[in-house]
């Protein structure tokens, strides 16, 4: 792995809950989302691009919209789901449109709209 271009005592770590990189100072134990002062941005960009291509873990997230024909038509949000399969598909297509337009992220939408218990983890499986 290449040099991340960070000042001494700083390293890049990965947040499992947010699925994002963050910066950690090994001496002070400070963690932050923004790069620390004195970072070489060109090296950091190259490092991040390289780590994104690195084989290893694969993460998956989803947003589940159940319908009355689902195997278990209830969720943490609704005791008894009554929508039709067609209504669920329509809802999902609208979510897809909103995500693809950049209006909202899958994770942010999953937190409030998914019928799966993974909603509390931004849809992360």
General description of the model:
Helices cover 30% and strands 11% of the residues. It has helices at 41-53, 85-101, 106-113; strands spanning 10-15, 20-25, 31-32. A 3-stranded antiparallel sheet has the order 1-2-3, with no helix packed on it. The radius of gyration is 20 Å and the shape is elongated.
Major pleated sheet? 3 strands, antiparallel
Strand adjacency order, main sheet: 1-2-3
Please give the number of β-strands: 3
Percent helix, as a range, is 25-40%
* Cα radius of gyration in angstroms: 20 Å
Which H/E pattern describes the elements? EEEHHH
Percent of residues in β-strands: 5-15%
As residue ranges, the low-confidence spans are none
Secondary structure tally, helices: 3
Overall geometric form? elongated
- Helix-strand makeup class: alpha+beta
Distance linking N and C termini: 27 Å
Mean pLDDT: 89
Layout of SSEs?
Elements: E1 10-15, E2 20-25, E3 31-32, H1 41-53, H2 85-101, H3 106-113
Summarize, please.
The chain is an alpha+beta fold and about 120 residues long. It is built from 3 helices and 3 strands. About 30% of the residues lie in helices and about 10% in strands.
